[in-house]
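User: My instructor asked us to take a sequence, write out its structure as tokens, and then describe one feature of it. I'm not sure where to start. Here is the sequence I was given:
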Amino acid sequence: MKLGELIRTEDFRSEKHVPFIGTPTVVKKGKKFEVEVTVGKEIPHPNTAEHHIKWIDLYAKFKGKPVIQISHFDFAPTYDEPSVKSTISLPESATLIAVIYCSIHGLWENSVDVEAQ
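Assistant: Let's start with the prediction itself. The structure tokens for your sequence are:
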């Protein structure tokens, strides 16, 4: 079994696990811009000691290159909401990938293409 087979991309319950990625889809090469990653943007995800989002990772995939990790955020249950902003820059167009871990339902991901001009 491969890790990719365990990462979910579609929700199956009333709470939302698939991370929302808020970012411009067109940016200037090398210029800073903000990326927001939120879990439960439309329907809040539970935030209890037993059921919460433990972390969010943000990656970039450039054409013909390996995936690189851009950001990693850890969360404490009950007091910390799974919503982050990261200021990044891209030297070329890329696919941004957000992966999150829910303490009960496992790994979830979403992605968005960003064109760097």
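For the description part of your assignment, you could build on this observation: The two ends are 38 Å apart (CA to CA). Try explaining in your own words what that tells you about the chain.
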